[in-house]
Molybdopterin molybdenumtransferase (Kibdelosporangium persicum), 636 residues
Amino acid sequence: MNSPFVSDVPAAQAHAAWREARAAAGCPARVETVRVSVGEAVGRVTAEPVWARRSSPAFDSSAMDGIAVRASGTVGATETTPVVVTDFEVVDTGDPLPPGYDAVVMREHVHRTPEGAELRAAVPPYQHVRSIGEDISAAELLLPEGHRLRPVDVAACAAAGVTELVVRRAPIVVIVPTGDEIRPIGAELRPGEILDTNSLMLAAQAREAGCEARVTDIVVDDPEAITTALRAAAEEADLVMVIAGSSAGRDDYTARVVASAGSVAVHGVAVRPGHPVVLGVAKGNPATPVLGVPGYPVSAALTFDIFAAPLLAELEGAAPRERPSATARLARKLPSVFGMDDWVRVRLGRVQNQVVATPLPRGAGVLTSLVRADGLLVVPAGVEGHHAGSEVRVELLRGLSEINRTIVAIGSHDLVLDLAASALRAADPLITLASSNVGSLGGLVALRDGLCHIAGSHLLDPATGEYTLPYVDRLLDGSGIAVIRLVHRDQGLLVAPGNPLGLKGIDDLTRPGLRYVNRQRGAGTRALLDYELSRREIDPSTIPGYSREEHTHLAVAAAVSAGRADTGMGILAAARAFNLDFVPVAQEPYDLVLRADDLSGDLLAPLWDLLASPDFRAQVEALGGYSCAETGQRIR
Ligand SMILES: Nc1nc2c(c(=O)[nH]1)N[C@H]1C(S)=C(S)[C@@H](COP(=O)(O)OP(=O)(O)OC[C@H]3O[C@@H](n4cnc5c(N)ncnc54)[C@H](O)[C@@H]3O)O[C@H]1N2
Ligand code: MOO
C-alpha cells in the first residue's frame, strides 16, 4: 500500500477493514480494567455488572413529615365521624418508622386536640411509608457491564453499598503532529507557517470522549523522524493519531510510515471531508491502532468523530455516543459529489414551524463552518445532492430549544447583523441571529420560499433608482411583507492604503491595466455598480476584472489588501477591517424584509428592541460608514 494514489473505500467497508487488521495484528479488543472509588468513576465504563449489596431504603421510613399511626386504629374516620388517636409518634421525612406503626399521616391532615390527634379519613396501611428496598433491593442487578457511568449511576451504587467499581481505564490517545510548516500554539509565525490547532482540537475531542490525551512534539516532514515518533507513541498509546501528510503531496509520508511500522488497512475513504484518511496498525507488544488524520481542520475534526470515537468507545466496551437528530428543510440547493459521503455543516432555525437547514461553507479548511454549525448532514455516497426545499435528516449539535429561538437571516451580509447577533446573545443566551450570505436577491427568494425570517437587502432597481421595494413587489407580490430600515451605509471603492492609483470614482474603473474585483450576480453591491455604470453609459465589459467575483465585502477587501486586485466596491467597514482606503461612491439603505405576521411575534421582538436602543445605534455608528438616522423605521 505504498501507492501515492488515495482510494475511495466506502466508510462501512473501511471500518470493517480496519477492525480486521487490528484483530489480525493482535491489537487489544478492550483496555484493561481498574478498580476505582465511586467518587472517581463518572465517565468510566463498567467492566462487570454491579449488584446491589444492600437495600435502599434499608428500613421502612416515613415519606412525609407528620405522625406515625397504626392503620387499624383509624378505621371508620370520615369528615363527619373523625377518630381521635392517642397512640402515635411524631416523625419527619426519612425517619425510620417506629416499631409497631404501619402508616404516616401528613401533618397538614392532622388536627391536634387536647385528647390526641384527630383524623378525618381512615388511613390505609403503608400510606406515606417508603418500604425497605423501595428503591433498590439487595442482590438486584443495578448496572450491566458496558455502561458509561453518569452522576446518577454512582449515587445509586453508593446507596446500594457499592463504594468501588471495576471499570475500564481511560484509553490513552497519543497525537503526533507533523509538518515542516507547523508551529506550536502561541508561536510567532513566519510566512507560510501554520499553528498546530489540530493537536489542540483532537486532544480536546479525545478528552471529551473520556480518554487521556497526550500530544508529542511537532515532527518534521521526514519519514524516519515520523517513524520514530510513531513507534514511540505506539508504545504508550491505545490509539495513535498522526496528523497530516495523509494525501499525495511530496511530503506526505503517513501511509508509507504506517506501512513500515506495521500495516495500512485503508488509505482513502469515500468520505468528504476526510478523504485521504489512513487506517492502520503499528506492530508492537501489543500492536496499536493508528489513524492518519488529514491535515485540514474540518477533515481532522470529522475524522475523529467518524473513525476515532467509535474505536475508543469499543476499547472501553461501551456504545458509541450518538447525537440526536431532526428532520429539516434545505434552504438552498446542495450539490454533492456522487460516490462520497459528504458531511455538510448546517445552521438551523425554525421558520414557519419547520426546521430549516442552511448549508455552511464546504471547504475542509473552513473550521468556522464547524464552529457555527448547529447540525451535520450527510449526503450519502449514492446521492448526487438535494434540491432546495428537500427534507433531510440532520444530526443536532445544539438543543432544539436554542434552534427554535434562532432568527434566520438570509441575504446580503452586513457587519451590523454580526453586531446585532452578538448583542442579542449577550442579552439572552438562548437567542441566536444566524445570518448567511447569498446576496440580496437570494435572500428575497429564500423569504418567498419560507426558508428564513429575515432577508437583508440593499437591492437597487436600475430602472427607478429605488432600493428593495420594487423587488419586494415583483418577487414577493408585496402583500403581507414588511420592510424595516436597518441602516444607511457608505458604499465606495476599496483601495490600497494611500490610494496609489489615485482612483476618484466609477469613471476611473475603465483605466487600462486596472484590476477590478466584482461581487457576485444578485449582490446589492453588484447592482449598485451596474446602476452607476449605466448612468454613465459605461459598458461593463470595458472594466478589467468585471467578471471576477467574490461573495462578501470582506472577501473583496481581502483581495485588495493582498494585492490580488487594485479595487472593488464595498462598504467602509470592510475597508477599515483591512486598513484600506475608501473612495465614497454612494450612500445606500440596507433593509430587513420579512413577513408582516412576524413583526409582532416573540421571536423577533428582541431584535426590534435592540434597534431602538441608543447604545446599539452608537455602536453601529462607531463602526464608521453607517448612519442610524432611520434605523428601526418601517418603510413598508
Ligand atoms: N493530489 C492530491 N492532493 C490532495 C488530496 C489528494 O487526494 N490528492 N487530498 C486533499 C484532501 S481531500 C485533503 S483533506 C488534504 C489532506 O492533507 P494532508 O493530510 O496530506 O495534510 P497536509 O497536506 O500536510 O496539510 C493540509 C493542510 O492542513 C494543515 N495542517 C497540517 N497539520 C496541521 C495542524 N496540526 N494544525 C493545523 N493545520 C494543520 C496544513 O498546513 C495544510 O494547510 O490534502 C488534499 N490534497
Ligand atoms: O477529504 Mo478532504 O478532507 O475533503 O479536504
